[in-house]
Amino acid sequence: MTQLLLLLVALLVLGHVPPGRSEFKHCWKGQGACQTYCTRQETYMHLCPDASLCCLSYALKPPPVPKSEYE
């Protein structure tokens, strides 16, 4: 009976733990995540509507646009 009660308590506690990255809002065509801080593997792209940072992985960062000779 004690083990059953312990299992029930453990399941209730684990049920309240938020999921990993799914809690973040998506940005940059669904490839970035709106967060308070970007990790070392991510770069800041722009601000999200809620004033948080849109963080995008360096692997997904778009290449820089080449400048025209006429500018």
Task: Explain the overall architecture.
- The chain is α+β, with helices and mostly antiparallel strands and 71 residues long.
- Helices cover 20% and strands 25% of the residues.
- The chain has 1 helix and 4 strands; from the N terminus they run αββββ.
- A 4-stranded antiparallel beta sheet has the order 1-2-4-3, with no helix packed on it.
- The protein is rod-shaped and about 80 Å long.
Question: What is the gist of this entry?
Answer:
This protein is of the alpha+beta class and 71 residues long.
- Discrete helix count: 1
Q: What's the overall geometry?
A: rod-shaped
Helix content: 10-25%
Span from first to last CA?
A: 78 Å
Q: Give the ordered list of helices and strands.
A: HEEEE
Contiguous low-pLDDT stretches (5 residues minimum) are none
By secondary-structure content and strand pairing, the structural class works out as alpha+beta
How much is the average pLDDT? 79
